[in-house]
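Dear Dr. H.,

I hope your travels went smoothly. While you were away I took the liberty of generating a structure for the chain from your last submission, since the lab meeting agenda had it listed for discussion. I wanted you to have the full record in hand beforehand rather than looking at slides cold. The sequence, exactly as received, is reproduced here:
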Amino acid sequence: MDDMIRDIGGERVHQAHVFDSLKDDSLTKLYPGCLSSCLSIVLQLFNMKERNGWTNRSFTELLEFLNEILPQGNIVPTSHYEAKKILCPMGLEYQKIHACPNYCILYRKEFEGLHKCPRCAVSRYKLKDDDEDEDVFKKGPPAKVLWYLPIIPRLKRFFANVNDAKNLRWHSSGRKCDGLLRHAADSLQWKKIDYLYPEFGSDPINLRLGLATDGMNPYGNLSSKHNSWHALLIIYNLPYWLCMKKKYMMLSMMISGPKQPINDIDVYLSPLIEDLRLLWDEGIEVFDAYEKVNFNL
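The corresponding predicted structure, in token form, is as follows:
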């Protein structure tokens, strides 16, 4: 919890209200005489919710019960929504995008209003056993889902933290250049990029990202046939002792199972590729907390 508050930091000028909100909740006791803060209790309750698979409705009922039995003056949130507002004031958004179960398309842009795949004619939604006519579409749970976590807001947050903004220059200012291979910046591939795109390579603050993906079995031994896929982005500007830390690995998407997408993963990568193309072709305006200026990333 302390790390979370420290990472938001007072340096994030444009998110000062977020920092103040979390700081207040971390100092405010749950009720007079309580040893724990509101933020720490909510965080522990959410951990228990996820570990035990509680529904949002059951979580709300628990919060209402706690609010009744605890001493008067307690500030226990009375709903799942109110608890989330305490824990996640930064609003790290995600996009839940429906996908064709045969990996043909994502239901976005020109396909957003369709109820079946225009290529394989499979329903967008899960069909019950007694639904023999696939032309009868009832809105319900999607057959397959992609969770996309936009990368641009998170890159802005990195530069809004003065320590992170300084570390993102390390490959240019702090790296030892003696001909030995210690970091990705020492590699021939990195130098080739600088040679092919000198305008990009001349600015040390421009980001070099690595994309990695693999399958994972989220349910352990309970369901060995189910496989979900995730895509991670690694920021190679950082020092080698930081770039592989969990804190700096950006989860950009989760592809629901049970089957692996194999070569059709291209379909799912399209939202990420669009954001990367925007960054490459146009760039975005970002506040640099280290230099105290706005720049085009």
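Two observations you may find useful: The longest strand covers residues 209-216. The two ends are 30 Å apart (CA to CA).

With kind regards,
E. W.
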